[in-house]
């Protein structure tokens, strides 16, 4: 099996995968996609269940997405995952979109059923399961600060809202996007839960003074920005503003500590990176494709 397939390979299919036994019928589409750990995780799951198909990486750029999706449908693929830059763009090419994915406005999992593309989004639920696994708490009991307002933030903020979290604060470099997201979620927070003098739902600017003010009224801080993807990046919130009562979750996944997790530990807080979210969103995708429970232990072992 090749490390990375391209649109040209799909156009020439099945020749490029002739040597792959079992055949490739699942994959991840993205650009870049070389860093993705999904193939090792999903292939371990497939193998452990005795399913005779394989999962591969496909480097597909924005302009190639419609052609690639059309080919996958014709080539009898079972499904795919989507990563940057396709999650939002893919919506318009689906034959059918699950209600939750439509609310988020992004698709990360496609199931191909009788030649029809069905879109789902497992990021929010995967996040919720990751928080339970890492910190033994449920979102409904937490006051959450989400850093960022892009695709991952939308999935996470909506999940927090649906699970009726105590409080949700959204901070983003472009404050308008944080404000828009908070507005969309307003109805979820209109209920009777009352929590002292601070608002239950709030958008705040990406500023040190705003972070400092919020920290005392927050339990969980989630980084959904790309700050920390580069090992030389500083922590999105400096260690001196963090506090020991916090749980810090960085959606960036890494085998070493991300800058945000390092800052958490330096301040005495608990911290975890996005490997657990990757695992759970992938397990949920597996369940959509095969309508059976995912082999979590095998998938987790492949990631570690
Ligand atoms: P988007 O491009 O949609 O959003 C990026 C966000 O990062 C925006 O809010 C943007 O702010 C912010 N940002 C970028 N640069 C800076 C900066 N220098 N300072 C402050 N804010 C910045 O990306 P996604 O939401 O799709 O993905 C974001 C992250 O989530 C990725 O790092 C990815 O690894 C992670 N992720 C992890 C998953 C997992 O399973 N573990 C699953 C999905 C995503 P602005 O609006 O101002 O541009």
The CATH superfamily of the largest domain bears the name NAD(P)-binding Rossmann-like Domain
Number of strands: 13
Percent helix: 25-40%
Uncertain regions: pLDDT < 50 for 5+ in a row?
A: none
CATH fold label of the largest domain: Rossmann fold
Order of helices and strands: EHEHEHEEHEEHEHEHEHEEHEHH
Rg, please?
Answer: 20 Å
Distance between the first and last residues' Cα: 22 Å
What's the number of domains? 2
Strand content: 15-25%
Q: How would a textbook summarize the main sheet?
A: 7 strands, mixed
Strand order of the largest sheet: 1-3-2-4-6-7-5
The number of helices is 11
Average pLDDT over all residues? 95
Quaternary status: single chain
Silhouette: globular
Bound chemical compounds:
NADPH dihydro-nicotinamide-adenine-dinucleotide phosphate
Q: What is the annotated CATH architecture of the largest domain?
A: 3-Layer(aba) Sandwich
Identify the notable features of this structure and list them briefly:
304 residues, alpha/beta, Rossmann fold, 2 domains, six-stranded parallel beta sheet, binds NADPH dihydro-nicotinamide-adenine-dinucleotide phosphate
């Amino acid at each position: 099996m090749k490390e990375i397939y391209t649109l040209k390979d799909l156009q020439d299919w099945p020749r490029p995968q002739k040597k792959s036994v079992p055949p490739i019928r699942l994959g991840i589409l993205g650009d870049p996609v070389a860093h993705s750990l999904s193939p090792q995780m999903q292939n371990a799951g497939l193998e452990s269940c005795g399913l005779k198909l394989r999962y591969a990486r496909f480097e597909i750029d924005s302009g190639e997405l419609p052609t690639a999706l059309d080919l996958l449908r014709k080539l009898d693929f079972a499904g795919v995952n989507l990563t940057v830059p396709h999650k939002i763009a893919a919506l318009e090419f689906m034959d059918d979109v699950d209600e939750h994915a439509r609310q988020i406005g992004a698709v990360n999992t496609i199931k191909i059923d009788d030649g029809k593309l069905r879109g789902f989004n497992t990021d929010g639920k995967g996040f919720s399961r990751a928080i339970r696994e890492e910190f033994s708490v449920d979102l409904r009991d937490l006051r959450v600060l989400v850093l960022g307002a892009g695709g991952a933030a939308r999935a996470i903020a909506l999940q927090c809202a649906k699970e009726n979290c105590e409080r949700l604060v959204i901070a983003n470099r472009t404050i308008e996007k944080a404000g828009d997201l908070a507005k969309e979620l307003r109805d979820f927070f209109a209920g009777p839960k009352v929590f002292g003098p601070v608002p239950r739902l709030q958008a705040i600017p990406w500023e040190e003074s705003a972070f400092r003010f919020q920290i005392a009224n927050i339990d969980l801080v989630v980084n959904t920005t790309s700050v920390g993807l580069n090992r030389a990046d500083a922590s999105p919130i400096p260690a001196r503003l963090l506090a020991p009562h916090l749980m810090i979750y960085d959606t960036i996944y890494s085998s070493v500590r991300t800058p945000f997790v390092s800052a958490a530990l330096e301040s005495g807080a608990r911290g975890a990176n996005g490997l657990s979210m990757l695992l759970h969103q992938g397990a949920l995708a597996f369940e959509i494709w095969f309508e059976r429970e995912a082999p979590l232990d095998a998938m987790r072992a492949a990631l570690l």
